[in-house]
């Protein structure tokens, strides 16, 4: 291992290569429950040329490379299961170019989502993709992240115009032109988005950005049961209302939020909504939404336009996970997400609730329900194999439910290690096509081995 470190120090500067215990530990895990594995060495590139040098060396020596962004993924994505190099992209953190007239920005992969929005605010622009963590843009592209605003603005795949990628051979490519549309060639930008570091290293991103709307209104709508709540969400989409955020928070989460933050929201299934646009349109959208959801059994509807009140309302949604975990001191967090066609959402959420009560798993549901996606957060006792096995069994039942309804095993968190075992069932013969693409681009399987479409062979629990 010393040889690996010494070789890399000869290629880059000494301070760009580390095998200190704390740095290795930091790069051995993400935010998931999967068992950490130490890399042999951590490398901090500062330019595309640095990445080319490291990847070319790794290809020659047959060393595995795992790109590492903010490390916030939830399925063991960055765990270096074969050891090798953890390639920390966070020193490549410059916003390189803002093109307001083209609604485009060029960034390095280590720029964090919140930093980008702070910078874009000066131009009256914002980047809409909004996962619940302050992730890096490179990591967000590599996982096809999405979040609360997807129902209006789409996921990363809809907002990445082009990428610069260092392939596993060390060759650098630009995946597409900057034209807003194209019928030329295969769409490999979309192939690299969501590839979880298995096809190469993203070294630059051209992202689509949007004008900051004149008016933003947030609203909270309460329902007597989850079924009505989810049906209301579907009805809003069906009515063609351009809602920007539409989040389901179930009664257990609301109770936890009340206890955690001293609020007194009704402990019933609640939709948190947000509308953007010019004043006149937003007012009309809110009125129509109110009528549509009244027909679906909404028992209380409140909306706020004041910025402070809006932030406070969303704080309840954003703190839901921390509030939920606060109830279980010493327990670990396991999160799963599935996504189904919107019409099947009520059935899927009800089944999740039934499964929670049948299995006794400590869980609560929250979802970006406008796009068919919901999450179940579980509090697990990491020291207790039975508890972990029970949570796993619940997860499996939930995934099978989503698949049987025509959905997917993950709407946004990605596959990593945790959801590899469902890839065959979900994709059938298409999985072999994906594996062939992986092998064509990375014949040695050195890029983030053991993830996404690679066979699931290991147990990943402690
Ligand atoms: C509290 C919390 C809430 C979350 N909420 C959401 C949510 O609402 N929606 C959502 O989508 N996700 C959510 N996540 C998951 C996570 O934040 C996202 O998956 C995020 O996109 C990961 O970005 P990252 O920078 O942390 O990447 P990392 O975790 O560092 O890496 C993720 C993957 O991307 C690869 N990668 C990283 N950088 C590069 C690069 N430059 N080139 C090639 N591959 C690269 C890695 O190898 C790895 O496979 C949440 C996580 C937490 C902890």
Helix-strand blueprint:
Elements: H1 2-11, E1 17-18, H2 21-26, E2 41-43, H3 48-61, E3 65-68, E4 85-88, E5 95-99, E6 104-107, H4 113-121, E7 125-126, H5 137-142, H6 150-153, H7 156-159, E8 160-166, E9 172-174, H8 188-192, E10 201-208, E11 210-211, E12 215-223, H9 226-238, E13 243-249, H10 251-261, E14 270-277, H11 279-295, E15 298-304, H12 307-318, H13 320-326, E16 332-339, H14 345-359, E17 363-368, E18 373-380, H15 385-404, H16 423-427, H17 430-441
Helix pairs in contact: 9-11, 9-14, 10-13, 14-15
Describe the structure.
The chain has 462 residues and is α+β, with helices and mostly antiparallel strands. 37% of the residues lie in helices and 21% in strands. The protein has 17 helices and 18 strands. It has helices spanning 2-11, 21-26, 48-61, 113-121, 137-142, 150-153, 156-159, 188-192, 226-238, 251-261, 279-295, 307-318, 320-326, 345-359, 385-404, 423-427, 430-441; strands at 17-18, 41-43, 65-68, 85-88, 95-99, 104-107, 125-126, 160-166, 172-174, 201-208, 210-211, 215-223, 243-249, 270-277, 298-304, 332-339, 363-368, 373-380. The strands form four sheets. It has a seven-stranded antiparallel sheet, with helices on both faces. α10 crosses α13 and α14 runs antiparallel to α15 (385-404). 48% of the residues are buried. Bound molecules: flavin-adenine dinucleotide (FAD).
């Amino acid at each position: 291992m010393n040889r690996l470190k010494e070789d890399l120090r000869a290629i880059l500067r000494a301070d760009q290569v580390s095998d200190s215990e704390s740095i290795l530990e930091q790069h051995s895990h993400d935010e998931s429950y999967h068992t950490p594995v130490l890399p042999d060495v951590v490398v901090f590139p500062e330019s595309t040329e640095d990445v080319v040098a490291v990847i070319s060396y790794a290809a020659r020596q047959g060393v595995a490379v795992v790109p590492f962004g903010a490390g916030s993924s939830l399925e063991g994505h960055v765990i270096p299961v074969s050891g090798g190099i953890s390639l920390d992209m966070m020193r490549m953190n410059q916003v390189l170019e803002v093109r307001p007239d083209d609604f485009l920005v060029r960034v390095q992969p280590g720029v964090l989502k919140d930093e980008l929005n702070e910078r874009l605010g000066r131009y009256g622009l914002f980047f809409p993709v909004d996962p619940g963590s302050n992730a890096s843009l490179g990591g967000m592209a590599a996982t096809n992240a999405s979040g609360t605003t997807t129902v209006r603005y789409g996921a990363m795949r809809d907002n990445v115009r082009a990428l610069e990628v260092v392939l596993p051979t060390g060759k650098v490519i630009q995946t597409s032109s900057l034209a807003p549309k194209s019928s030329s060639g295969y769409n490999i930008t979309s192939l690299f988005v969501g590839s979880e570091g298995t096809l190469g290293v993203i070294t630059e991103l051209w992202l689509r950005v949007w004008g900051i709307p004149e008016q933003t209104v947030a609203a909270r709508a309460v329902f007597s049961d989850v079924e009505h709540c989810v049906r209301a969400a579907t009805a809003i989409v069906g009515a063609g209302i351009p809602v920007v955020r539409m989040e389901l928070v179930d009664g257990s989460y609301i109770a936890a939020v009340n206890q955690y933050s001293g609020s007194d929201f009704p402990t019933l299934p609640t939709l948190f909504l947000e509308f953007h646009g010019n004043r006149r349109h937003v007012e009309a959208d809110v009125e129509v939404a109110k009528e549509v959801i009244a027909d679906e059994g909404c028992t209380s509807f409140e909306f706020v336009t004041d910025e402070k009140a809006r932030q406070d309302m969303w704080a309840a949604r954003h703190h839901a996970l921390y509030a939920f975990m606060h109830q279980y001191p010493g327990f670990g967090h396991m999160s799963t997400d599935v996504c189904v066609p919107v019409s099947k959402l009520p059935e899927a959420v009800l089944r999740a609730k039934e499964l929670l009560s049948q299995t006794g798993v400590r869980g609560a549901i929250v979802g970006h329900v406008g796009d068919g996606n919901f999450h179940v957060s579980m509090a697990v006792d990491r020291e207790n194999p039975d508890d972990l096995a029970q949570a796993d069994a619940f997860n499996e039942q939930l995934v099978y439910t989503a698949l049987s309804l025509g959905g997917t095993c993950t709407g946004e968190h990605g596959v990593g290690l945790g959801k590899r075992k469902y890839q065959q069932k979900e994709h059938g013969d298409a999985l072999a096509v994906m594996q062939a693409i992986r092998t064509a681009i990375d014949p040695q399987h050195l890029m983030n081995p053991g993830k996404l479409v690679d066979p699931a062979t290991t147990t990943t629990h402690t």
